[in-house]
Amino acid sequence: MPSENNKRIARNTLMLYFRMMVTMGISFYTTRVVLNALGVVDYGLVNVIGSAVSMFSFLSSSLSTAASRFFNYQLGKGNALELQRTFSMILLLYGGLFVLLLLLSETVGLWIVRTKLVIPPERMEAAVWFYHASVATLLIGLWSVPYKAMVISHENMRVYAWASVFEAVSKLAIVYCVTLGSFDRLILYGILLGFVTLLHLLLYMAVCRIKYPETRYLAYFNKAKFKLVLVFSGWNMFGTAAWASSDIFLNLLLNNFFGPVVNAARGVAMQVAGGTSAFTQNFLTAVRPQIVKYWASHEHGQFALLFRRASKTGFFLLFALSLPVLLETEFILRLWLGEVPAHTVRFTQLILVTGLINSFSFPLVYGAQATGRIALFESVGSGVRFLILPAAWFALRMGGGPDMALWVGLAGTAVCVCARLVIFSRLTHYPVADFVVRILAPCVLVTVCAGWVPILIRVNMAAGWVRFMSVGLTGVVTTVVAIYTVGLDRGERLTVSRLTVRFVSNQWNRIVSRLCTS
User: Fold this and answer.
1) Is 242 within 8 Å of 381 (Cβ atoms)?
2) How far apart are CA 254 and CA 260, in angstroms?
3) 134: closest CA among 196, 202, 72?
4) How confident is the model at residue 437, as a pLDDT?
5) What is the DSSP-derived secondary structure letter of residue 213?
6) Predicted local confidence at residue 482, as pLDDT
7) How far apart are CA 417 and CA 363, in angstroms?
8) According to DSSP H, which parts of 105-156 are helical?
């Protein structure tokens, strides 16, 4: 069974990488087109208004995590009827959330946009219309979450990947529609985003209706189970709110202190960081259902093994991409955007380093959620995250530059990972010392061993294509060598060697077979 699960994880990871390569390429190109079509000011408004809407989307994200956890748990137990009942109660929760989000976004959220954001007066009306369109997009997208969670819980990454590709292609298409239209581009862009989200919802509903009968609504209500889902969702909501506040209000702080141009710089930086971290997120998306299922079936040995490998592999994947981007940030941004907004280079580098530190958080979160006992885990970790906002405000108030707020966020992320590790150890009895010795130490060694050669090349060569290619190629080579020699333990090296030999042998046999039959 573990061998079959590993094969399934590998297949799903490859499918998600296909999804990532296509969507990331389209997304990066789309960002450039949107930036040119809307201009720096309107693009900054898209970013900061999106942050205002995201203040409420964390409620949706919280229930999405809860849905995935309970779906995975019931699948691990093999109880189809309970899975259908759970799905039906999740839909009830989403109905209530829909009404709550509508009320909050059209009162508190609209007040923030009109009175607290720095928006040029001549663009205020367009900004308000874009905000309404963004709220509609949020509410439409809300209904796709339970269906998407069911697809992922069934580990049907093929559907998930193709649906994401469809969404990315559609968003690229609407950008060209925006450039061709005579209507206000900011307003038109918001309306068309809502239309794409509606198509995405209908696609997921159709797939689930055909493949998964448990997604058909069942008139069922169990007070104890509803309370269990609600309590879990509440604590997870608290944790998600902490992350949302530290990210969203950081964006609002930058807007208030420095204006929308700095928001545009942070938006571009987040796009780069999001593209690189997609490698880690795709792998962990494939791993997450198995983590919960191992815990549900009381296979704690496999749970610990998968947690350890997920933590290291997630970091290695992100580091392999981040290293050349960190060293050649300015060259990449100029190649991508042409004209790079001020502060974008430093923002990108700080967000990438923060992402590397935060990569350890995701397996900790997934493991803790598998146990279902997340009250202490979320309260301690989220309490640390909530402190980032006042600390960043104080740093900016004392005269710090825009990048100072991101330095505060980086430090807060490191403290949060440490706090979560301690609580995770209490929940699962996974030793902190084992994490330090078998996960953290190899990751630090890989970072040190892989980085010094590309850094020497960068220091001793003039900027340009030759240096960029040299840094990129040597970064890949040194990272692979470092991971194999100091990042993997003896058993993992043997597994990698065996799989590599098998792959090469299979490919050689195919070549020989084709030559003999031709």
Assistant:
1) yes
2) 8
3) 196
4) 92
5) G
6) 92
7) 11
8) 110-115, 124-142, 144-153
Two tokens at 489? 């333990």
With a CB cutoff of 8 Å and minimum separation 6, the contacts of 126 are: 42, 184, 186, 187
Cβ distance 380 to 365 under 8 Å?
Answer: no
Mean pLDDT per 10-residue interval, the chain, length 518 residues: 57 64 68 71 71 62 72 76 83 82 83 78 83 85 84 78 79 77 77 86 88 82 78 74 71 76 76 69 74 81 87 88 87 79 83 89 86 82 81 84 85 90 90 92 92 88 88 89 88 77 68 63
* 402-428 vs 388-397: helix crossing angle, rounded to 10: 160
Residue 298 CB contacts under 8 Å (≥ 6 apart), including other chains: none
DSSP assigned state of 121? G
What is the model's pTM? 0.69
Structure tokens at 103: 């009320």
Torsion of CA 375, 377, 379, 385, to 10 degrees: -150
- CB distance 391 to 412 below 8 Å: yes
HSE-CB at 60 with a 13 A cutoff on CA atoms is 24
Q: Show the CA angle centred on residue 66, arms to residues 60 and 67, nearest 5°.
A: 85
Q: What pLDDT does 435 receive?
A: 93
Q: How many CB atoms lie within 10 A of CB 284?
A: 22
Per-residue pLDDT at 441: 93
Supply angle C-alpha 110, 140, 277, rounded to 5: 90
The count of other CB atoms within 10 Å of the CB of residue 515 is 8
Q: Which of 63, 218, 81, 82 is nearest to 149 (CA)?
A: 63
